[in-house]
User: What shape does this take?
Amino acid sequence: MKFRLILIGLALPFSVLAQSNGDTAFLTARDAFRAGNITKLERASSQLGNHELAVYVESYRLRMWMEQGDPNNLRDFLQRNEGSYVAEKLRADWIRWLGKRLTWNEVDAEFPKMLAPEPDVICYSQQARLARFDQSVLAEAEKQWLSQLEPPEPCRPVLDALVTNQRKTADDVWARARRQVEANRPGWAKTTLNYLPESQMPDSKAFDSAINSAMSYLVRQPGNWSASRAGRELAAFAISRLAANDPRVAADELEKIKGKLQDSERQWAWTQIALQGAKKHLPETVDWYANAGKAPLSDEGAQWKVRAALRAQEWGVVRDAIQAMSAELAARPEWVYWLGRALKSGGRTTEADALFDRIAGQPNFYGNLADEELERKITLPPKAKATTAEETRAAIDNPGIRRAMAFFRLDLRTEAVKEWNWALRGMDDRELLAAANLAKRNQIWDRAINTADKTRNEHDFSLRFLAPYGETVRPAAQNQSLDDAWVYGLMRQESRFITNAKSNVGASGLMQLMPATAKWVAKKIGLRDFSHGRVNDTETNVLLGTSYMRLVMENLDNHPVLASAAYNAGPGRAKKWRADRPLEGAIYAETIPFSETRDYVKKVMSNAVYYSAQFNGKSDSLKTRLGVVGAKTAEGMKDADLP
Assistant: This one.
């Protein structure tokens, strides 16, 4: 909009004015589509000409005419735009429209042309196959039984078919309901229990009481509550709900009733207490997991069993827990690394080194740590040769990238990112580097970084780890006596250098400052005439952000791992997550209870290693940066009101 306003009254080339008029026509058409105004849409459509986003407006028209229109128009559009993001989205909407009308032959014809179908679209295809008695659908649905805990509406008939075809027993129904209770989806658990024979279904009011008033439910149960499976399972559900608030209280209650529960019910209840205990870093957690025996664990439960053992330094439990994971889960870099560490602690260094070698060289937290276990330095890979004029021209002429750039020009970032990401599908390294460079030249920093991140053999880490605003950021870091590599590592994770970035909780700018935090820091450093409207100003944002980083460091032992956790989740939490004894920085990071913060801290610290190598021209050590996090103390923080 600012760009268009600047144009008013100036003598400009016709092509620039045409682009501006086309942008206005597109925005008008988009608004008309959202309002359901077909007349206004048609009028705006006629003013678009050869605008990059004209294809979107055509798709809007086809959506609005879907009810009355000839499907041949849809087919013609999809054929002309096959493989594009806009065609993928339109085809998905058409399949949804057809599925709701049970037009299964058409669904069968269109679904194979989908490139990345969403779950509900997949389920419409599965319904179509069920309608022609394709029993292979049931084998696919089996895999969704314990993973798709909150299924989209089109998926429910597919899951229903498993029960109708007697592919699921009462044990399976209870297993699914348990997973849903664990995932805090009690409404879906109640729905799942409707699959039980009527004589085995728990009373609806009893279920609600066990979920919503767990302690009261356990205290007021009738004397014969354990005579039925429903009664025992609801008691276990109540224990699970108690554990979410206080695992120790739940453990005490389970001890009182465990003799009345069957093995699977009792062991599942222990897994729920252990899971919550692990997240709260309680020392009894490893014992609670032991009480659960070999009860099946969800992926989350299996991972937290390892994390609890890491904090307790129970390397044998770490080893056994990872080896009991599913193959897919155990193959993740974090569990490959920690299994290697567990084997190494037992003297099995050859096996450990083989595991480290499997993930070494990956430019991430655990790839870095694996390199260091193998005594390899973390260095920047050779820089790919510069992209040629032909490669650059191909990126500029790519229709998907052109549409993305048009969306960026209109400040429609969500649509721009989707179109950009779709355009990258199937690109080789040279094409990715050309696209990343194009984004960099247009100061679309986040797409430059994310695109360069995707290369497999040829790399340019100056793109992966861009360092814009150096004239502002590096002096600010120096003024605060902060490591500029760490500051950039944090900014890269916070905003990808988008100056007007705003999170869903209200954080703003390059360093993603919350309003209250920005106001507190401004007052603390004596910044006069500060108003929140200035928070997106680059210099102000960096000044406040780096000042806050220094204050957090000073309040948390000058430890960057604690400070990184505090920047994301708050200093009180970062302090609370310490253990009663010193912890490896890597173990502290891996056992952070919040998944977002856990991922954030690991990425910030790994980012810092690469920025350091780039700024200083020599390898850096992640292990040294992580160091050891000291034991928790009763001492308060220097700034008691630090937000």
